[in-house]
Amino acid sequence: MKFLALLALLFISASAEKSRFDNYRVYSVTVENYQQLQAIQYLEEHSDAYNIFESPHLNADTEILVPPHKFSDFEELTENLGMKAKLIINNYQELIDEEIKPSRTPRVDAQYDWVSYKNLTEIYAWLDEMAAQYSSVASVRNIGTTHEGRPIRLFTISKKSGNRGIFVEANIHAREWISSATATYLINELLTSQDPDIVDIATNIDWYIITNVNPDGLVWTWESNRNWRKTRAPVSALCFGVDVNRNFAYNWLTPDETGNLGASTTPCTDTYAGTSPLSENEAKAVESVFANNIGKFDVFLSFHSYGHYMLHPWGHTRGHSVDYDLQFAVGNAFRAAVQAVNGINYAVGPSNTVLYATSGTTPDHAYGQYGIKLSYTIEMRGNGNYGNYGFVLPPEFILPNAEEVVAGLIGLVNSARTYGYLRN
Ligand SMILES: [Zn+2]
Predict the structure, then answer these.
(1) Is the CB of residue 270 less than 8 Å from the CB of residue 45?
(2) If you measure from the C-alpha of residue 61 to the centroid of ligand 1, how many angstroms do you get, rounded to a whole number?
(3) Which of 107, 201, 316, 416 could share a disulfide with 359, CB 3.0–4.6 Å?
(4) Are 46 and 88 in contact (CB under 8 A)?
């Protein structure tokens, strides 16, 4: 009893306190052999101190957040393993403080913008305003409720009947703020732009957009821990959160040919897949959009950060999908159109082989379960010739990122049309 009371107290104090990352460093390590891979995977599963930003894989770089009390351990570890480690962020807290500075300045007008990041309340209020202002073509509705009682909302735009559809989900991973900022920018463009290319895709395609699949997670990143990825549902005596992007039904927790699960069965890890397929309210909400609109969507897009990737199925297997050529060609049109704007070069290809093994993701589910061939994960800006920021992309990059992604979508639509998709 006493222990439980103490535990409850611990949780109360933990939720009141904002996590700080003063002098935490981010290192980029290059995983070159199996021994190094195993060591990083071990840290990912077992260490509370380190945070591995994305799952490590062979012959690629992985970013790791290292607290000050682990600096010497980490140095020893990389030395013993003969692993190259490059310091890319010297003080993670400094980056976090810089990120929200513009939104701390009192605003003279109440105009929504893309020069600062918006919190969930601001995003939801703006969605309401846009739906009211453009009520003849746009609407917003609740499609589910999170563990903490927040609505999950679907914004739709339809300017004429008979259109084929594109379904977009964003911010399924809480710390990837740029993903929902880009989704709101897309909505704004579709409703207000006079650019003929945007008028075309806004008029001749129906858009279904969930700007925030994971509202509880987003609120947690604003109020408690900027580095949080999952939901906030309790999953064990000590841990919270399911990775919704590992919770979808198609080949849930299915290992690939190398035995890689592409998700975790350990509740405390960042890629915890949940207790069963579609166990989480957030996944159920997204599922309801697929299930209620069978045959509607030619394209499904999942907005993430970071790394400049345009990923198509599969994640759960190293084998090529039967629609590989089509998926690559349309993905490549997105890549070319993005690059034409600011020179950012995305890598295109199947999730599993271009990035790493994943199972239970929304794009695999959209394609495998619902037959949406043009299903993609878009990993936006984070590190590049504009700087190394990871998930904490400074607000001055919201606009360039959003502009190049929207240009990419125009390229994607035009390419899809040449193959007979998105035509009424
Ligand atoms: Zn993500």
Answers:
(1) no
(2) 16
(3) 316
(4) no
Which tokens go with 348? Answer: 């295109």
Instruction: Enumerate residues 6+ apart whose C-beta is below 8 A from 74.
Output: 27, 50, 64, 66, 85
- Fold held by 112-418: Aminopeptidase (3.40.630)
Enumerate the domain spans of the chain. Answer: 18-90, 112-418
Q: State the pTM of this model.
A: 0.93
Give 202-243 pLDDT, tens digit per residue: 999 999 999 999 999 999 999 999 999 999 999 999 999 999
> Is the distance from CB of 170 to CB of 213 less than 8 angstroms?
yes
Q: 377-402, pLDDT tens digit by residue?
A: 999 999 999 999 999 999 999 999 99
Q: What fold does the segment set 18-90 form as a domain? A: Alpha-Beta Plaits (3.30.70)
Cα of 215 vs centre of ligand 1, distance in Å, is 14
CA of 209 relative to ligand 1 center, distance in Å: 17
Active site includes 379?
yes
